[in-house]
Amino acid sequence: MSLLGTIVSKILHPFGGGEAQAATPEGSSPSATAPESSAPGATGTVPTVDGKVDVEAVLTNLAAKAGQPLNWRTSIVDLMKLLHLDSSLTARKQLAAELHYTGDTDDSATMNIWLHKQVIKKLEENGGKVPDDLKD
């Protein structure tokens, strides 16, 4: 599974209830840094709004259990840490490649902002209910 697919699955299917639909861009390869497991510490049911997974509720719940402050709302690094994924620059460059980022990957600040927006967009495209303040 791609890194993006793993992110989407951990948020939208935290109990292994299914694969993220269309989450993997064509031509991407599986990630050695992102295991195909359910969300860490996840138990119970997935919160929904209007039949869609409530992304904010899932991530806020994980953040409350993280043991450290993680700003998943604005930081791709913190979002990846929250999901217990490799958040290194190498991993983020891999994610950028999967999402067909055309900017300079050495400008990590700009890339990180773009990555966060794209991941939020992909969560919504794959059935997640995303808070309005996170949409472009």
Automatic annotation (TrEMBL):
* UniProt-recorded name of the protein: DUF3597 domain-containing protein
Q: Where is this region: Disordered?
A: 18-48
Give the source species. Methylobacterium nodulans (strain LMG 21967 / CNCM I-2342 / ORS 2060)
Identify the InterPro entries for this entry.
DUF3597
In this chain the DUF3597 domain maps to: 4-131
In this record, what's one Pfam family? Answer: DUF3597
Q: Which residues lie in Low complexity bias regions?
A: 22-42
